Amino acid sequence: MTDLSHDGTDDGFHEIQLSGKQLVFLFMATTVVSVVIFLCGVLVGRGVRGEALSAGSTPTVAPPSPSSAPAQPGIWAVQVVALTDRAAASAVVQRLSSKGYPAFLVTPQSGSAVQNYKVQVGRFEDRSQAELTAGRLKKEEQFQPWILR
After folding, report:
1. Range of 94's domain?
2. Within 10 Å of residue 95's Cβ, how many Cβ atoms?
3. Is the residue at 105 inside a domain?
4. Rounded to an integer, what distance in angstroms lies between the CA atom of residue 74 and that of residue 82?
5. How many domains does the chain have?
6. 3-class SS at 119?
């Protein structure tokens, strides 16, 4: 007869002992994988908003006008963004114009306290046309536009 001195209760437990070299390799592999994931996120994030804002430009956000206002005759425009850097604002105008939007730049008045270059689109006869264009800009260009009169 054979005597089995094996206890069956510990079959599911296996202790893993790693040497110092194995621990360093595991740490380095985890670091490399984390950096690769971060860089993939950066590459994906680059295409989210296609405009390049220079370091000196700061976008300003004005409260949108109420969309429940009745359509009134007059000249309506859609403001896309207001920047303190003229070159960045001109680049946005050029990009929108190349995509078929009637974009233009509104320069600040001389002597005003805040020097914002406003990028606007269109001269619409009624608000509904401006709202359609604002919707397209929000969907296709990822802007947060607002309608002006």
Report:
1. 76-148
2. 16
3. yes
4. 23
5. 1
6. strand
Closest Cα partner for 59 from 89, 103, 101?
Answer: 89
Answer whether 116's CB lies under 8 Å from 86's CB.
no
26-37 CB burial, b ≥16 within 10 A, e <16: eeeeeeeeeeee
Looking up residue 110, the CATH number of its domain turns out to be: 3.30.70.1070
**Beta-carbon count within 10 A of 78 CB:** 27
Residue 60 lies in a domain: no
Residue 52 to residue 91: CA distance in whole angstroms: 8
Q: Is 32 contained in some domain? A: no
Q: The whole model's pTM is what?
A: 0.51
pLDDT (tens digit per residue) in 95-112: 999 999 999 999 988 888
Give a yes or no: residue 131 inside a domain: yes
Tokens at 63, concatenated: 């409260």
Q: Are strands 117-124 and 76-83 parallel, antiparallel or unpaired?
A: antiparallel
Check pLDDT > 90 for residue 68: no
Label residue 70 by pLDDT band (50, 70, 90). Answer: very low
Please report, to the nearest 10 degrees, the dihedral formed by the alpha carbons of residues 127, 133, 135, 136 taken in order. Answer: 170
